[in-house]
Amino acid sequence: MRLKGIYCPMITPFKNGEIDLDGMEKNIGFLEKEGVAGLVPLGSAGEFPGLSMGERREVIKRVMDTTSLPVIAGASSVRVEDTLDIIAYSADLGAEAVLVAPPYYFRTSQEGLFCYYSNLSSNSRLPIVLYNIPVFTGNPLLPPLVKRLSGLDNIIGIKDSSGDMKNFQDLVGLLPGEFSCLIGADHLLLHALISGASGAIIGSSNLVPRIPVEIWRVWRKDIKRACNLQKLLMNAVRIMDTGTFPAGLKYAMNRLGLVGGDGVRPPLMSTGREEEERVDGLLEKLAAIPGYGEADGEADN
Predict the structure, then answer these.
(1) Distances (CA, A) of 300 to 131, 175, 191, 195, 233
(2) CA of 278: how far to CAs of 148, 208, 240, 241, 250, in Å?
(3) pLDDT at 210
(4) Which pTM value belongs to this model?
(5) What is the tens place of the pLDDT at every residue in 129-160?
(6) Of 17, 155, 10, which is closest to residue 74 (Cα–Cα)?
(7) Cystine design at 299: which of 57, 88, 148, 231 (Cβ 3.0–4.6 Å)?
(8) Cα 97 from Cα 168, distance rounded (Å)
């Protein structure tokens, strides 16, 4: 199984302190129309550490009940038992694969991470996509380790959110062709595709999926257009960098008529007035999205 295209790591909208499942369903309808390759609930944009196990099941079930797109369910946890529980539940509902970051809080060695994923692989009923996001976990998945893990039968790919292009290029160079190397850093989307990425799982696809989908579609035949689209996408990246992620993203979604919800759950902080004014200004730069008019010339840097 090789994962290709743009997958959306869905936000989790809240309403009056609870998950807004109907709002999530509305967002799914939007994403399906915009041409994403699949959905990834319960990743970092989905604020999975702030959800109970029961809430995680609710999210997975609503996504699976709503969409016909492939679903890669987030199954990361400090406890291996919780990860295996989410994997089993997702398998029962028909998910295509699961996304699993290393355990966080405690630091471990590369050998410790190999043992962790080897144990998961032996007990998982679904293919596993590794999730390298050392800024949150403190446990990087280095290329030699990923090469070892790629030899396990049901570890099929990696989402690399390290933001380190050299690291990603090393991964592509080391790993077999059937292994899915997915970029998780929006600002590196085009660079990664040129370097051999099979696709991406990027947060900006919650807000402006048409831009990364179009980059994926055209980059081989029209690199100038792809470059201008990447420049346009940087406005969405700056939105995501505003406030405490994913607060700026959620506010922007609300402004565009999507369902970002009431904000983020504590201890994260929702956007303040200055941050919202910054996001509003960046959204103005994305006004060309419907026809990509700005992408045919020189987009703002």
Answers:
(1) 31, 35, 18, 24, 10
(2) 44, 17, 11, 11, 14
(3) 96
(4) 0.94
(5) 999 999 999 999 999 999 999 999 899 999 99
(6) 10
(7) 231
(8) 21
Q: Which of 7, 117, 131, 251 is catalytic?
A: 131
- Written as six digits, the tokens of 246 are 């994913």
Instruction: Give me the amino acid identity at 97.
Output: A
**Contact of 248 with 279, CB cutoff 8 Å:** yes
271 domain residue, yes or no = no
Q: How many domains does the chain have?
A: 1
Residue in this structure with the two tokens 């902080």, named with its chain if needed: 269
**Local structure of 46: helix, strand or coil:** coil
pLDDT tens figures, 62-72: 999 999 999 99
3-state SS string over 55-67?
A: HHHHHHHHHHHHC
- Is 170 within 8 Å of 143 (Cβ atoms)? yes
Instruction: Evaluate whether residue 262 is within a structural domain.
Output: no
Interior angle at CA 32, CA 218 and CA 258, nearest 5: 105
Instruction: Take residue 17 and report the two structure tokens written for it.
Output: 């302190």
Q: Which two tokens stand for residue 284?
A: 């103005």
Q: Which of 7, 117, 159, 251 is catalytic?
A: 159
**105 has catalytic annotation:** no
Q: In the prediction, which pLDDT does 115 show?
A: 97
Sign of the four-CA dihedral 77, 188, 258, 261: positive
**C-alpha closest to that of 247 among 269, 232, 226:** 269
Q: Is 163 within the bounds of a domain?
A: yes
Q: In what order do the strands lie in the sheet with 128-132?
A: 38-39, 5-8, 199-201, 180-183, 155-160, 128-132, 97-100, 72-74
Which residues make beta-bridge pairs with 15? 18
Say if residues 256 and 290 touch (Cβ distance below 8 Å).
no
Residues spanned by the domain of 53: 5-223
What is the spatial distance between Cα 14 and Cα 260, in angstroms, rounded to a whole number?
8
CATH of the domain at 142: 3.20.20.70
In a domain, 269, yes or no: no
